[in-house]
Specification:
The chain is mainly α. About 75% of the residues lie in helices and about 5% in strands. It has a 3-stranded antiparallel β-sheet with strand order 1-3-2. The N terminus is likely disordered.
Amino acid sequence: MPLRSEETEPEAVQGMKSRDKHFLAAADHGAKQATKRPAAANLAAMVAGRIDAMLGSGELAPGQRLMESEISRMLGVGRMPVREALRILAGDGVVEIIPNLGARIRTMNAQQVADMFKVLMGMMFVALEAFPFVEDREGAVKRLEERRDEIIRNVREQDDVGTVCAAMQYQLELIKISNNEFLMASFKHIHSQFYARQVVKYLPHSRIKKIGQAYDKITSCLAQMKLQPVRNHWRKNLRENAAFLERKSE
């Protein structure tokens, strides 16, 4: 008995084969697109990180307009990842996207910076609650000491932006040690370079250099498991700076 050719197969069978081909083609296309998406997302995140770093170095400043074509040329990437990076930064409060005008670096006023200090203080108090239960406490203290040394080095070099960034990296380290997933997810959206640049607009060097002393005391107390003095030092440092900024905004 001869084999049945595709032409002699019933129409229902041929229809099923045709649908299967379309389904497999669509699945293959979807798989390729899914492979491309993480790469595109990583590129956009890289561009967002570079813009944040340019803020820290002073290449970009609060209020400055961001031209997609110019950033694309500077970073050697296409305009699509730049556009996506600007959306990411807008979602994190770093960039403002103005209809028909494009994007610009957001400018914070003194009251907004003061509010940020209060939020950070609350986050640190929550992270501290987990510190007594950390398994490798010696390793945790060592990592915090490294962050403290970075703060002090920036203070000695009179790098105010570097000092504020290093203090925020210390806070991030404590959050990582606490293993609080909500805090870690929230802190991911705080761009240290952007906020540091906003802070130094309003806080004088005489106040910023005290950050080194405050974090030296905080680290010493954490090493001795004296958590209440840590809260007191943080409250004093952050609350005093917040109060100074609030007076400045009046």
